[in-house]
Design a protein that fits this description.
Layout: H1 12-33, H2 47-52, H3 57-69, E1 77-80, E2 83-88, H4 89-111, H5 143-156, H6 161-192, H7 197-206, H8 218-239, H9 244-253
Antiparallel strand pairs: 1-2
Helix pairs in contact: 1-3, 4-5, 6-7, 6-8, 8-9
Length: 273
Amino acid sequence: MASKFNLSSTSPEYALLKRRVKAFNERINYYTKRNSGDIMLPEKVKASELRNQILTRKGFNQVISDLNRFNSKTVAPVKVTASDIPITKWEKQRYVRNLNRRNAEAKRLLEQEDTYKGLMGSVKEAGLAPRSNILESQEKLSRKQLRDNLNATVLRGSESYHKIRAEQYKENYKSALRNNLGYAGDELSDLIELMPSLDFYWAYLEDPFLQIGFVYDPSEAITVANRIQLALQEHVLKTAKNKKWGQAFLSKNSETTYNLVPSDTEESDYLEY
């Protein structure tokens, strides 16, 4: 696994990124003045936004390489089936690179389809299945539709895509626990907070026992809570028991059971809606 890459605002790497972004945007300005509207140029970028998409040295090098590739040769117009408006050779090449990167990961997930049955149901239902090349679509896209598709594919091909999804899913899942399982949901939410977002994200997608569903009575809530607790513990035992957060998780998990409704809580109040 690639090591984490700290791209701080004071690092020499970030200074390099800002220089490359400035040069890229200056080239966009230059070609915009000479463009009569017969080609869709790339959009300008911000160093701060690109930094949020970078997690490793490899990802940093890929971004720098993309910016450097935009020049007088790659600004040449390229016709695509999906639009009457040509795009630049640079943007087509970047789109294909990111699409291939995304689809390679999707193929890997499909190969484990049998075990990939968590809350999202399947690879396809999770929106992670391989995608076709939108540029080859027979259906004509408007300028905005084409731009949105190009941008979305670049984002999905970035290192940060799953990290962003992971953070959103983790928060949504904790909210669902609290809404469906009441007291036990609060306890499980505290437990899940110990897990890094990406670790929880993959467990969440791959493990069918992390499903919550709809809970209608306290006894069912207890059953669901215990199932989720055991599933989370099993995941940590397999992947992270020797890591600091894994040890903290298992230590706290061993102290928590959901066999009984707390004695000072009325059964009818156990679920908080």
